[in-house]
Amino acid sequence: MTADELEEFLAGAFPLAPRRYRVAAVTEAGVLMHLPATGEDERPGGTMSGPSMMTLADASAWLATVSRIGPVALSVTSSLTINFLRKPAMADLWARADLLKLGRRQSVTDVRLYSDADGGPGTAVVAQASVTYAIP
Question: What is the pLDDT of residues 102-116, one digit of tens each?
């Protein structure tokens, strides 16, 4: 699936859910996602909140899987482990999700989060997550 097709799928699968993250690109290994920072994401100390970072990591792993298997909305997270590596500034976040394994019943994805404050994707990693999805 393309980035536009993933966006259309999300709009159809979750028509009433507010969603600020966007699919920037479908890559050879997975997807690149973008989350604009807002006041909703700020935690005390002026940093990006962990729940916002985990949401982006989970969504990007799911969409990396969906980009390969097609519009199957019933895939569910079976495991998510995240490592917060650096204190991210209150700036837009990027997620690069790379599929490590895509089988018939599960996918395993490595997700790396980057901050626009550091230069965006490909710069210093602010968090890393390993996410497993169960595929129906």
Answer: 999 999 999 999 998
DSSP assignment of the chain, as one string? --HHHHHHHHHHHSTTS----EEEEE-SSEEEEEE---GGGEETTTEE-HHHHHHHHHHHHHHHHHHHH-S-TT-EEEEEEEEE-S--BSS-EEEEEEEEEE-SSEEEEEEEEEEGGGTSTTS-EEEEEEEEEE--
**Number of folded domains in the chain?**
1
120 pLDDT higher than 80? no
Domain span including residue 10: 3-134
Residue 67, token pair as written in the block: 């980009």
Task: Look up the CATH number of the domain holding residue 58.
Answer: 3.10.129.10
pLDDT in tens, 47-64: 899 999 999 999 999 999
Asked if 30 and 67 touch (Cβ cutoff 8 Å), the reply is yes
Cα-Cα-Cα-Cα dihedral of 96, 102, 108, 113, to 10°? 0
The pLDDT of residue 7: 93
